[in-house]
C-alpha cells in the first residue's frame, strides 16, 4: 500500500508541476534623471506580411528611416508600400527618453482593431517587446478594465524598452538594440551574431550568469559612428550603427556608417525633395566632397562635411587638414533590394572596427522572437556609460510568482503521505 501511495504522490506532483507558472521573463532597464533623448533600436520580427508603411506606423517612425536603418535600397518605386514578408527581422529606430525615472520610448501609439486584446497586442503585434501589464499601466485613462475586451479605435500608448548608456560601450560609440530572446537562443550565439562578447552582454545586462530564457529582453550594443553636431541642431546626437544609414535634414541628407568604420559620412540624399544649399561657403565643394593633394609633408585634404540641421537650414563645415596619406575611396554599407522572402541570414550589423570589413555570418542558434516583461531587481551597467562603467542597469525578474502554488503542493504531499 505505501508503494501505491508513493506512486500516486509522484503522479500528483507531475500533474501539478505542469501547471506551475514559470519565472517571468526579465529585461534590462536604465535608470535616468535627465530629459535628454538618444538614438536606440528595437529588434522586431513581423508577425504577418506588412507594408513598410504599416511597420513604420506601428512604431511611429519614418518609413524611409526604417528602410535605411536596415540598409534597404530606397530608390525602388513606391518603396513605402512594398510588402515585407512575415517573420522578417528588422531593426527599428526609436527615440529613447527618460520617463518616470527609467529609459523607454514614449512616442509609439497604437489604434486598436477588432479582436485586439492586451495580450495579443503585447505578444503578437509588438512581438513581446512590451507586456500586457505595461500597456495597461501606460494608459490609465483608457477603458481597459477587461483586457480581453477593448473598444475598436482605442488609442494606446505603447512603452517600448530602450537603453542609451550614453551611446557608448567600453568608451566607443554604440547604439543599443532591445532584443527579445527566443527559446533556441544562447548568449554565446547572440554575442557571435552581433560581433560582441558574452562578458560584454553580461555586463551591459547585469546578468549574474550566461543563462537566458525565452522572452527575456536584452540590450545589445552595436558598434556605431557618432556625430559631433552642436546641441542646437535638430539632429544633435545622431548615431548610426555599422553597416546602415540614417536620413536627416528633412530627407535631404543621408548619413552612413561604413563596414568597420567609426567615421560618420554624410552626403546629399537621393530623394527628390526641396533642400537648402549644400555647398560649403567660400568653396566649390558640395556636402560630402573632398579634395586631396599629395605633398612631401603628407596629404593636404580639404572636405565639405555635414554639421547638423539648424533652423531649417543644412549646416556645412569646410575643413583642411594635413594627413600622413591620402584617403581612399569612401566605403558604403551594402544596400539590399526590398525583401520579398525571409533571407537565410537575417539582418545584422556590420563587423566592428576591430574586425575585417563586411557582414558577419549568421549564427543558426540565433533567431529573434517574442516574449513578455515584468518584475524588478538591481545591478550594474556597461563600461563607458554616463556613470563610468556602473550605469545602474537593472535586470527585471519575478522570483516569487510560484510561491503560493508551492505551498499548496507541500500541503497536498504532506496529506498524501500521512494516509
Strand content: 25-35%
| C-alpha geometry | globular
Order of helices and strands: HEEEHHEEEEHHEEEEHHEEEEEEEEEH
- Low-pLDDT sequence parts: 3-23, 346-391, 396-409
Number of strands: 20
Give the structural class.
Answer: alpha+beta
Our count of helices gives 8
Distance between the termini: 10 Å
Give the fraction of residues assigned to helices: 10-25%
Overall pLDDT metric: 81
Radius of gyration of CA atoms, rounded to a whole number: 25 Å
- How does the major sheet shape up? 8 strands, mixed
In words, what does this structure look like?
With 419 residues, the chain is an alpha+beta fold. It is 18% helix and 26% strand. The protein is built from eight helices and 20 strands. Strands 2, 5, 6, 9, 10, 11, 12 and 13 form an eight-stranded mixed β-sheet that branches. Helix 4 (118-125) packs across helix 5 (132-138). The longest helix is centred in the first third of the chain and has 16 residues, at 2-17. The protein is globular, with a radius of gyration of 25 Å.
